[in-house]
Amino acid sequence: MVLFLSALFITLVYLLPLYWRRLARDRARAPGDLFQPAFFFCMLGLLNVPYLFLIAADRAYASPELRLSMWVTDLERTAVQYVLLSALSLLLMMAGAYSGLAGIVGRALPVLRAERFTRARTGRALLVALALGVLMYLYFVSQVGGLAFLWAHMYLRSALGAGMGYLGMAYMLLLSVAAALLMYRLRWTRNPLRRAATYAGVAFIGALMVSTGGRSQLLTLLVLAFLIAHYAVRRRRRLVTPGTAVLGAVLFAIVLIVPLFRHRGAYDRYAGRPDVLAQAAFRNLTPIAGQFSGFDRTAVMLNYFDRADRMWLGRSYVDLLYAPIPRTFFPRKPPVDDGVYFKEIADGHPVTPSRPAYEMQPTSWPMGNLVPYMNFGLAGLLLGMFLAGVAVGAAYEWMKRSRYTPFTIYMYSYVAMGGFSLSVLGIVYFLINTLLALMFFWLFFSPKRWPRPALGAAPALAAGAR
Prior knowledge:
Elements: H1 2-28, H2 37-46, H3 49-57, H4 64-67, H5 75-97, H6 100-108, H7 119-143, H8 147-152, H9 157-160, H10 165-184, H11 192-210, H12 216-233, H13 242-257, H14 266-270, H15 274-283, H16 285-291, H17 295-304, H18 319-322, H19 339-346, H20 371-401, H21 406-419, H22 424-445
Helix pairs in contact: 1-2, 1-3, 1-5, 2-5, 5-17, 5-20, 6-20, 7-10, 7-22, 10-11, 10-12, 10-22, 11-12, 12-21, 20-21
């Protein structure tokens, strides 16, 4: 009963802001913006809920990591702590996103003005991004032995891609930018043929991303394409339509099927046998809920770091100093991903940063904005959530003041989908991703001098003017 009530409580917590926003739009008799920061906070939070209800119905649905954890001894108490912490985190992120600080940061950021994003420049940038992205993708695939080999050994995906993380990040970014620019060109021509070609192009790019076994990249790509269409082409007033329902069904099927190939012998088991694949995908409904939830990780964190002497006290952030050093020059380099430390803890082997990566298993349990808790406890987590909210709110303000250019829409999408986090991995990836995106857009759309902050908010172009 405690688990069920906890799941119900956090569901209502995530739904209430969406309901209040709907009431505010109705009172104002204005459509408002569907994709404000609150939308992403609540929708991403709701992904955690199904797993809690499953555990409440039958604890056998809990993941092996949770059931076998030596740290989690009282699941009901942990669930109560989790939902209270989640509610407080949501409140702090909302406060940060809609604070004056977010507005100040958003107005201070330099702007590549919308006038620079002409049809000709957009076309040239699209061709370069797509060509470079596909070439990098092909090189990545060749280095892991080809697609057939990769899918036959998908359970070794992390090991096969070891040492090529930055390459993978670069081609994913370029392909995402290509999809964004492809959608952006609809603002000039929206006839049925152009729309069909655009959607086919985005689907092709999505297929490339999924082909290497990733799911989150596909989700972020679709969110980016959706935001480009919303802000730069035609504003949407409803989220659920027949088109989005079909798209959601396809995405859900991909989410169910891709993980099946991450087990030894899966390729031989499912290749050429769609009926067996469909049955396995249906059975995967329950495990997939746990993969979209942060409850397991948070439960272990709350129970392990319940003593002050286990806190890292900022030691994990020392690893940032070693991140730029190639591992060939410094064999004792600690892992860039602080989730490696936590996976060791979850497996019952307490460790404290900094440790050489080779002393630990090459697996990770990414912790995102929970890392400040592991360093500084509750105070660190609350400050981290507020700052994460500030980052999303600043990106939203920056996007509006830039008149919804592809660069700022891309950055808002990236940050709102969790691209900014106060973990070592999150900080490193955010800096690299932002730098690469800035370099690309600056190359094709920059003026002769560094752009100054926008002087004031400018409304989006009317649909007829595009």
